[in-house]
Structure formats: structure tokens, C-alpha cells
Specification:
Elements lengths: L1 E9 L9 E6 L4 E8 L4 H20 L5 H22 L6 E10 L2 E7 L3 E6 L2 E4 L6 H7 L30 E6 L5 E5 L1 H4 L4 H7 L5 H14 L6 E9 L9 E4 L6
Antiparallel strand pairs: 1-10, 1-11, 2-3, 3-4, 4-5, 5-8, 6-7, 6-9, 9-10
Helix pairs in contact: 1-2
Length: 256
């Protein structure tokens, strides 16, 4: 099998600064997006620090890379951001959501904290693999709020977990087997707050993932793009012949 991917980030139509960040390390089978928060330049610093420490961990691990090492890298980023907030921001928080996809041989590992998401399109069905660490999602789980009321709720923007917010970070992990033609979407909430899942599903039907990725961005901008927008599409391919617009690598990573 081979992997093709397309990554993009845009500051949107309202925000003056892009506080999102993304990471694509296809040779290691790692992709990630992050959505910084904290105001001024703090969110920008936070998301970039998370990506930088993930990259450092991947580079250092080499073929020994594992989901455990990636989780530890997020813990390191959490401590670094807490320290940065205390020393540079007089205690004001600089935090970031994060979602990381690690594909290794015929398996995938998903790690996340916050409301940046991962979707999987498989056998013509779109499924959200991550679950939002948010106040409204907890209320839905407890039966206190209907899912249809979540986006308009006054607590819709309150997240309950993020890198750099608490002394200890609880990283969520989901692992399963990859199948040929699986299509993963990593994205920040700047996309998902503008486009419903059924519309995302329609764009992901496109055979060319670069065109699908650009269509997602264009539609988000048309919808108003009130926040930064970052997304990565990752396609697990059976064939060796791929579209020349896609960035493609062989999937030959070793199991740990």
C-alpha cells in the first residue's frame, strides 16, 4: 500500500492571525493539526510548539516510533506550554488542541486532546473517530443536551481538554486496522463549525484528494470562515498509480 496526502492552512476571513498549525511527516507515517488559543500571539506560539515537539520526538525515535512515544511528546509539550505561560505570559494560558494520526504498517493510532477532529471515510461511510473534549459534548453524553442544539449553545466554544491548560494532560488514544482506500481527515474546528458532516462527506467523494481538500477550504470560506482553517487529507491507496497532484510515499514502516 501507499499513502497520499494533502495539507493546507488558512487564517480565514475574520481572524488577523493564523493560530493553527499542521505537521506532515509522511516518511514516519505521522500527520497532525493543532488549534492554538490564548489571545494575541500566544495561540500561535502554542500550536507551533506542539508541532515542533512532536517533530523532535519523531526524528529522535526513528524506526522505534510508537504511539507511546507520541503520547509522551504531547506530555512534554504540555509541560513546556505550562512553563511558557507562567514565565512569559504572567500566568495567562497559552494552550492548543491537537489531533495526531500515526499510520504504521496496517494499523493506525489516533491521539488527541480538545475539539480538533479526525474523520474516516471507509466503504462510502463517514465516521468521526475522535470525540470532542468540549462542554457541550459532555452535556450530550449525559443526556442534558440534544446534539442538534450543540452548535448554538452558549458553551459551544468551551473545551474541557487541551495541551498547556492543566499540569497533567490526558491524551485520548484510538487504535485500529487500516484498510486499502481508507481516507482520513484531520481538521481544526474552523472547518467543522462551518461545514456539517454531510457536506464534508460529499467533498470527500472526489477521486483526487487535492481537489477534495481545496473544495473543503473553498466551501468553508464561502460559509464565512470565522476562524482559522487547517486540514490534512490522508489516503491509504492499494494501487501504485496515483494522481500527480497528490504527495505519495510507500507505506513500508516497521512495526515496533
Amino acid at each position: 500500500m501507499q499513502i497520499a496526502f494533502h495539507a493546507q492552512s488558512h487564517k480565514g476571513l475574520v481572524r488577523k492571525l493564523n493560530e493553527d498549525a499542521c505537521l506532515a511527516l509522511p516518511e514516519a507515517g505521522v500527520w497532525a493539526v493543532a488549534d492554538g488559543m490564548g489571545g494575541h500571539a500566544a495561540g500561535d506560539v502554542a500550536s507551533r510548539m506542539v508541532m515542533d515537539l512532536l517533530k523532535t520526538a519523531v526524528d529522535s525515535a526513528g524506526e522505534a516510533l510508537s504511539a507511546t512515544i507520541l503520547s509522551q511528546a504531547l506530555q512534554d509539550a504540555n509541560r513546556a506550554l505550562v512553563k511558557y505561560s507562567q514565565q512569559q505570559l504572567l500566568g495567562t494560558l497559552a494552550g492548543s488542541t491537537v489531533v495526531v494520526l500515526f499510520i504504521q504498517q496496517d494499523s493506525y493510532h489516533l491521539l488527541w486532546a480538545g475539539d480538533s477532529r479526525c474523520y474516516l471515510l471507509r466503504n462510502n461511510t463517514l465516521k468521526q473517530l475522535s470525540h470532542d473534549h468540549s462542554q457541550v459534548n459532555e452535556m450530550i453524553s449525559q443526556g442534558l443536551l440534544a446534539a442538534s442544539e450543540a452548535e448554538s449553545h452558549e458553551l459551544a466554544n468551551v473545551i474541557t481538554r487541551a495541551v498547556g491548560v492543566d499540569a497533567q494532560l490526558d491524551v485520548a488514544l484510538n487504535s485500529d486496522t487500516c484498510q486499502p482506500d481508507d481516507l482520513f481527515l484531520l481538521c481544526t474546528d474552523g472547518l467543522t463549525k462551518e461545514l456539517p458532516d454531510n457536506e464534508i462527506y460529499q467533498y470527500l467523494q472526489h477521486d483526487d484528494i487535492a481537489d477534495a481538500s481545496k473544495a473543503l477550504l473553498h466551501s468553508t470560506l464561502v460559509a464565512g470562515a470565522k476562524d482559522n482553517i487547517t486540514s490534512i487529507l490522508i489516503k491509504v491507496r492499494r494501487e501504485t498509480n496515483v494522481n500527480e497532484n497528490d504527495k505519495t510515499i510507500p507505506l513500508n514502516l516497521k512495526n515496533v
